[in-house]
Write a structure and sequence with these properties.
alpha+beta, five-stranded antiparallel sheet, 10 helices, 65% helix
């Protein structure tokens, strides 16, 4: 059974995900002193809106504590953060958020179990964390390898197999269960959450790098066309005069057939790129640059006919805006590269 991991909150959702998967795999009878029974209890408690039984089967405090540690370690790993100073800054910031975020996660978990609704309007920060960890788009494939630790009969393992589109493959989230004094089992932590977060970060980094490379190639190629057209523009002016109808007609043809069409072609090529979420601000900036440049070309072409000072003023203002936006885009692309 394939089900979306859109239940509960942030790091805690990894534990709650067992509930969703459990419903698909554990309809048969299991003894109540087994790890399998704990997984089945999670599923049933969510279906029945039973907070008490859910907390019997999941040590929420332990899962959230260990999960948050794994999340921070994952996003600050050398593979995901380039400099030690940046890693320290992120660690300090995330530790400041630790207590309030865990409280928010617990509140979101309680809300989901009680109502079946994460209530986006009340849990925006939690949903954002879901997005950051990639769990919002993950799909449960299976639960495997439920077994008691040979070296410690009070500990057990279970693999929740999820498919993560950003990674492009299945990933086993390794759950640890512990048996209490009453012989009942609880999910207590996710063993490899750091590794999962690192893989998500690396996949996103690779997607951003691919976007930057392809967008850069498009921009460089079209900039060369614009520079060549600007030279032709200068040559037409050098042998003609703006007061001459033929000169203005030649310039208008160049503006419409080269400048304007090239910016339209650039926009279409950029638009066709696959844009990862982390590159959306830069991509939107590129789209804005193309739109303003096209509008500037339209104004310049219009001015060749109407010779109105307001028209040329509008065109020049748009060109200045393009230049400013291009500087902003270059700075943003540089920051994203580093």
């Amino acid at each position: 059974m394939k089900q979306r991991l859109k239940i509960a909150a942030g790091i805690g959702v990894t534990a709650l995900a067992v509930a969703v998967a459990g419903g698909g795999y554990y309809h048969f009878h299991v003894n109540n002193d087994t790890p399998e029974y704990a997984i089945k209890t999670i599923q049933q408690s969510i279906e029945e809106r039973d907070t008490k039984n859910f907390y019997r089967a999941v040590n929420v405090d332990s899962v959230l504590d260990s999960g948050y540690d794994g999340f921070v370690a994952g996003i600050t790993s050398p593979e995901n953060v380039m400099t030690p100073d940046a890693r320290d800054a992120i660690r300090n910031f995330t530790q400041m958020l630790r207590a309030p975020m865990i409280l928010s996660l617990k509140a979101a978990i309680d809300s989901y179990i009680a109502t079946g609704d994460l209530k986006a309007e009340e849990n925006g920060g939690v949903i954002e964390l879901l997005d950051k960890t990639g769990l919002n788009d993950a799909e449960i494939r299976d639960v495997k390898n439920i077994e008691i630790n040979d070296a410690n009969k009070n500990e057990a393992f279970a693999d929740l197999i999820i498919y993560q589109p950003e990674i492009g493959q299945e990933f086993p989230l390794q759950f640890i269960l512990a048996r209490g004094a009453d012989n009942q089992w609880q999910v207590v932590r996710v063993q490899n959450f750091q590794e999962y977060v690192e893989q998500i970060g690396q996949a996103r980094r690779a997607q951003i790098d691919e976007y930057l490379t392809k967008a850069g190639e498009i921009n460089v190629r079209h900039e060369a066309t614009i520079r060549e057209a600007e030279q032709k523009y200068g040559m037409i002016l050098a042998v003609g005069n703006l007061s001459n109808d033929k000169t203005r007609a030649d310039l208008k043809i160049l503006i419409n057939d080269v400048f304007k069409k090239d910016w339209e072609a650039r926009k279409q090529e950029l638009f066709s790129l696959k844009v990862p979420k982390g590159a959306e601000p830069l991509h939107n900036l590129y789209m804005r640059i193309c739109d303003v440049a096209i509008a500037a070309a339209q104004d310049y072409a219009k001015w060749m006919d109407d010779r109105n000072s307001a028209t040329i003023k509008s065109a020049e203002e748009k060109i200045h805006q393009v230049q400013s936006l291009m500087t902003e885009a270059a700075d943003l692309a540089k920051r994203m590269t580093s």
